Amino acid sequence: MEEVGSDGPPVSPLAKWRNDFSRAFQYYLDRSAPHIVNRWLGTLAAAAIYILRVYYVQGFYVISYGLAIYILNLLIGFMSPKVDPGLEALDGASSPTKDSDEFRPFIRRLPEFKFWYAITKAFCVAFMMTFFSVFDRYAGKRSPESTSGSFKD
Questions:
Q1: Is residue 62 part of a domain?
Q2: How many domains does the chain have?
Q3: Of the residues 8, 58, 126, 135, which has the fewest C-beta atoms closer than 10 A?
Q4: Is the overall model pTM greater than 0.85, yes or no?
Q5: Residue 5 domain flag
Q6: Alpha-carbon span 79 to 54, nearest angstrom
Q7: Which family does it belong to (predicted)?
Q8: d(CA 49, CA 65)
């Protein structure tokens, strides 16, 4: 028999827990939005912990390389305008040169909050990857007696 007053199919406890966790995470994420300096200090701390971890284990250079490329890609998106003025010049619209043209502020392609969130997630994921040896790949063969990380030919 079905329960009286049930609105839909029963929800599993795992789905309920995931929904509750997602709501709580979003709540704290929204509360952190106005605290720009504190957010970036936390990201700087996560980056320092990651760098110390990579330095301590003397490995995971491919992960660090991928992380650096990803951060550079995010930085390009953060520094680029949402609308490319070079492409607008080809369409006939140009930069405001007359008094009648309207000033348009610089709007980023990637907003600061999304930039911060993506970098913080990237450092956390990269840090977690350092605990699994399957991600520790080298460009050459490392000698077993060497602990300095030098490669043999």
A1: yes
A2: 1
A3: 8
A4: no
A5: no
A6: 28
A7: Belongs to the RER1 family.
A8: 16
* Domain that includes residue 128, residue range: 36-138
Q: DSSP string of the chain?
A: -PPTT--SSPPPHHHHHHHHHHHHHHHHHHHHTT-HHHHHHHHHHHHHHHHHHHHHHT--HHHHHHHHHHHHHHHHHHHSBSS-HHHHHHTT-----STTSPP----BSS-HHHHHHHHHHHHHHHHHHTT-GGG---SSEEPTT--S--EE-
User: Residues 32-72: pLDDT tens digits?
Assistant: 889 999 999 999 999 999 999 999 999 899 999 999 999 99
Q: Which amino acid is at 118?
A: A
User: What residue has token string 């509360």?
Assistant: 31
Asked if residue 16 belongs to a domain, the reply is: no
